Amino acid sequence: MAFTTAIAAHVRIVATEGFLINFTTPCITETRVSNFTPDLTQELVLQKIIQVSHSTVYRGTLDGTPVVVKIAFDSDRARWNLRKEAFNYFYVEELQGSVIPRCYNYVIGSTPIKGKTKPIDIACLIFEDCGEPVEDFFCLKPEEKKKILDGLLTLHVSGFYHDDFEEKHVCPWDLDHDYWRFGEYYSEDFPCKGLKNAGARMNIWRKDVGYDIASQVRILAAQRCHVDFTSSCITESRANGFTPGITQELVLQKVIHGSRSTVYRGTLDGTPVVVKIAFDDYKAKLKLRKEANNYFALEDLQGTVIPRCYNYVIGSTPMKGQTKPSDITCLILEDCGKSVKDFFCLKLKKKMEILNGLLMMHLSGFYHDDFKERHVVRGSQGYRIIGLRHISKHQCPWDLEHDDWNAGGYYNEDFPCEDLKWAGAHMNIWGEDAGHIIVLGVMFAGEDLDFFPPRDIVDCLVPNSGIEGSLENVEAIKDWLMQFKKEMDDTPDCNIEELIAKYQANPPHIPDVCYETKIEFKKYIPKSPIKKSFKLKFNSKTRKTRGKQEDNKGNC
């Protein structure tokens, strides 16, 4: 064993006084770990729920020792996942207590549960409480990042990598050679792709981005720009590869959006920028960190598909009307223009420029969760996709041989990626017979289409002013469209333009909408489908990006 704590034959589970759980205690369970001590029973006291998913995660004590406990009930999937995790802990037993937490026991049993007549199976994994998760790699010191990466390296050398704990992993790392090179450019012959991706995710290397990343940014407000904090404010960079001793001046000039994060236009040493600032709001700061992480993850697309990210800085500043200083977090991005007002008004060539950028994002391993007009901007350098806090990891099934969007025609039934198909439909690149209609992000197809007017009319009756796609909103718009279709069918000789204008002048009640939102509609312009085919042109950089994605699948 890697530690001397005895493994009990039985664990008696109870809950601390006043802490409610949905199964009956005390509950006696039996160990499924070898080398246990016969006749030894320990008491596990559950004190607090810290996470609920397939398994419920608690904090508590095991005979007075602080522990974290995962409990799975009568769910085959949850109990299988817990067995797998327990197996992995004991398979790399020699790393317990140094790289991974100590695993104190894995027990099973059965217990009555409230609301059910029969007892249910219960599985319980008990391991060392090692503290709270790291909130943000950006906030760690280089020596702390290195300690984490060295632990990950130890896991690799032991034959495993973290993305897939079941598969053996032969790591080509030379223990006599230091490949990390913190704060420098990473080596082209870096031996392990998994560790290289981890290092890049923790932002430990310098990046050749073509401009200086300042170690400090001094924030000021222009004369007529109202801010709630005291300027000037000195902030420090959390982007790796910054140049020590350089301080840049950020001048805020105009508020362009206000919510949890306030968005400004301004200049960074004279360069036009868009700035997102969050104060003492945990959710806002978390979202801004996520967005900064995503910009660095898609670094190869900066300046072409997405804006350049000039810096990510944090600090503290006095706030007007408050006695204590407030934390300030700031993401500084290239100003690439204003948001597209309406995809409907764009020429097909422009739509394809945007969609090909979205495809590049897919081939880099991400898809956009909220692809709408407000997240596409246009400036002198073309279109850029923004709103990167809404992107998620994605293994795109797009085949490089499938290079035909068939824009202006009808989409193929075997279109390889559902998300790209949805984006193309949202931008109206296919003819009316595409077989579906989009209402506030929800796709209707098949027999549902019999109750809707033609797609070009639907596009003019669905508000385009950023109304959220909640279930209540979708149902309200759906009923309204069905009402329009009935009136259109009942009066076949009606003037369609006048009927559309009538409905636009009397919009439906939208249940879930911000009071500031103004209901706006597209103008009805009858159009015929353009029979033209746009093919995606792949250059060497595109193939290199897809190659990186394929490389990331394999072992070292």
Q: How would you describe the overall organization of this protein?
A:
This is Protein kinase domain-containing protein. InterPro entries: Kinase-like_dom_sf, Meiotic_Drive_Suppr_Kinase. This protein is 24% helix and 27% strand. It folds into 4 domains: 121 residues, 2-Layer Sandwich (Phosphorylase Kinase, domain 1); 65 residues, no CATH class; 122 residues, Phosphorylase Kinase, domain 1 (2-Layer Sandwich), CATH 3.30.200; 167 residues, no CATH class. The C terminus is likely disordered. It contains 10 helices and 21 strands. It has 556 residues and is of the alpha+beta class. A 7-stranded mixed beta barrel has the order 1-2-6-7-5-4-3. Strands 8-9-13-14-12-11-10 form a 7-stranded mixed barrel. A 3-stranded antiparallel sheet has the order 15-17-18.
The mean pLDDT is: 82
**Total number of distinct structural domains:** 4
Helix content range of the residues, please?
A: 10-25%
Q: Give the N-terminus to C-terminus distance in angstroms.
A: 29 Å
Q: Show unreliable segments.
A: 529-533, 540-544, 547-556
Which range does the strand content fall in?
25-35%
- List how many beta strands DSSP finds: 21
Rg for CA atoms: 28 Å
Structural class by secondary-structure content:
alpha+beta
Q: Record the strand order, biggest sheet.
A: 1-2-6-7-5-4-3
Protein name: Protein kinase domain-containing protein
InterPro entries: Kinase-like_dom_sf (IPR011009), Meiotic_Drive_Suppr_Kinase (IPR052396)
